[in-house]
User: Fold these one by one.
Assistant:
Number 1:
Amino acid sequence: MSEQIIQPNKKKVLSCIQPSGMLTLGNYLGALKNWVAMQDEFDCTFAVADLHAITVRQEPAALRQQIYSTYALLLALGIDPEKNTVFIQSHVPFHTQLSWLLSCNTQFGEMARMTQFKDKSQKHPENVNVGLFSYPVLMAADILLYKPDFVPVGADQKQHLEIARDIATRFNNIYGDVFTIPEPYIPKTGARVMSLQDPAKKMSKSDENANAWVAILDSKDDIIRKFKRAVTDSEAAVRFREEQPGISNLITIYSAVTGKTTEEIEKEFEGKGYGDFKLAVGETVADTLAPIKQRYDEIIKDKKALEQLYTEGAMKAEYVAKKTYFKAMKKVGFVL
Ligand code: ATP
Ligand code: LTN
């Protein structure tokens, strides 16, 4: 009798990224690098969350370009569309459809306390739209449709994931088991990269000051220049201290890129000034990002191939999403 090989089912992972601007080093170290690392161990679904992007006003031509560009960048980072499901959120209509069912099971008060809503509505007081308010419900739908075990997100998204878990638990309690309750998956190092101009704020691609962030696709010269101009603190020593958030942020970045520990870095730069360190961080980051940019330039040229990949991705995603959606509809009492 031949020995039976037991293949334990891989755990499922889902994450999405908004195409709302140039993806930054923060997105890379806080989220995308992790996605790449997870694809061997897990069954992964990754999406470009284009529907989320319009919670803030987008110029149509720029949005279209950003959607292509974000999808191409995921491939350039090394995410394999054969091994994983990689798609564009708006291509799978069940996200918005499930979002309605979930909205009717989410309280106004739950949404009102979301810190990202408070931040973004302050940043764009002229456009505090209902979509911006209910955005975590759409995010919950993105997640729950695919029944993932883990959702890798940066620390800033933890609150939204908590709400997704609350909504799923409540729905299951009322209507019966439909959704899996997902766990957050937050990387230990480089989880939070701060702005190079104001280390009290996270590095964000929508920051109007372009010196505050490094784009994954920035040129080497731009990257080095931005690090040279990074705001640092009064004490001119390369030492990680909470009271010195500027230099500590650079140490975090250098550590995430090189894999060296804080102690090793402090030792390496003992007796050296900020200038030397900033240059080293800039060069190392630029060298890390260069091959990604090179692959991206190749991929973005072939729109036909790209189209084929995202169409196949959407088909794979839809197959899974549809089942969950109709199960939820049935439980709520709709006639199918
Ligand atoms: P926006 O500026 O439009 O709010 P963003 O730059 O914050 O965008 P998102 O699309 O919201 O980026 O985030 C994509 C992923 O990258 C999320 O998982 C988020 O947690 C992570 N991320 C974003 N910025 C950082 C950062 N500075 N440090 C670590 N992770 C980050
Ligand atoms: N809201 C997230 C992007 C996002 C997401 C998701 C992340 C949309 N849907 C589902 C994880 C799972 C953001 O702004 N970073």
Number 2:
Amino acid sequence: MKQHHCLVLKVGSSSLVSPEGEVQENFIRRISQELHALRQSGWDVIIVSSGAIAMGRILYNKPTRKSLSQKQALSAIGQRYIVNLWQNAFDAFGILTSQILLTRDDFKSRKRMLNFRNVLTELLSMGSIPIINENDALSSDEIRVGDNDTLGALVAVAAGATHYVIMSDIEGLYDKDPSRYSDGRIIPEVDSITDEIRQMAGGSGSAVGTGGMITKLSSAEIVTRAGITMYIVSHSLQHLAQRLEDQAGMGTRFKARKNISRHRHWIGFQSSPTGTLVIDDGAVKALQGHKSLLAVGIVEVSGLFKPGDTVEIRTQEGRLIAKGLSNLPSSQINLIKGKQNAQHRNILQQEVHSSVVHANNMIILEETKP
Ligand code: GLU
């Protein structure tokens, strides 16, 4: 049986609004045509659209300070306009769009995530195209996802999408920064995101959006780990439906990896770590062999956390090799770190879990030592 395909398309601010402040209505019309074609060949489609703040700036058209509250206000002005633009374009095909605005909290809480997933399923079965953005008007720095590359990745995972396409003014991942080197070339396919690939990403960004290549790579990490294929493509790319079907001619493709469980994915990419455990080389080996983390291998504890909180697990050189749910509070781990399990009872005056982080509640981010 043919797998049911679902695309999350992220459209960056720079594709919707030019640096001179012109609204790119032709682009929006062209994309809606492309997405209509894709839906006709059986795909589900979800759009993650940026541009609220950029559009708000154009509409308000007066100098503003760059304060958080002004950005929030501009986004509220621009967001309404952006969804109108999309709806006007999809009217040509009789397609009803819908709007969902999210913050980081919606991904952290499993209950809210379930709600989100349910409403998405319902909207798609009603034939609607959901248009999603961060709830910029109500989100302060602590609760923001912060950039729409990452937001789109989290949406793709939640939606159970098969494909995630990031469309922007960058044509793909270059082996060298194309703004500095004229011989930079697009890498057509990335199997896994190594340090070498990260170095290629440098820090390039565009004038109107907030994402750069770094956020695109961390998005690739999020989605490919959930079995989703990701592409970075130029907003001038045409015949998207055909190219997706052919799996060819699309900027840089990040190959989907083996799907991990939702539980592990949530630990690795949706929950927010509240502390760090630094572990010795023996423990690194054990974890990479899919064993649990024991107190004896822990060298350092930082942060204040409770049982059930997510913690980062790092090597002594500082490399992030895993994340997991702690069985113990940071205060207890501090007392038993480096100590064999047989000593724990005496030190803590109570019976505690034999592992600090159980292998089932852990995601390994670095499989083997480089
Ligand atoms: N959510 C922001 C907006 O709509 C865009 C964030 C981004 O560019 O990544 O203005």
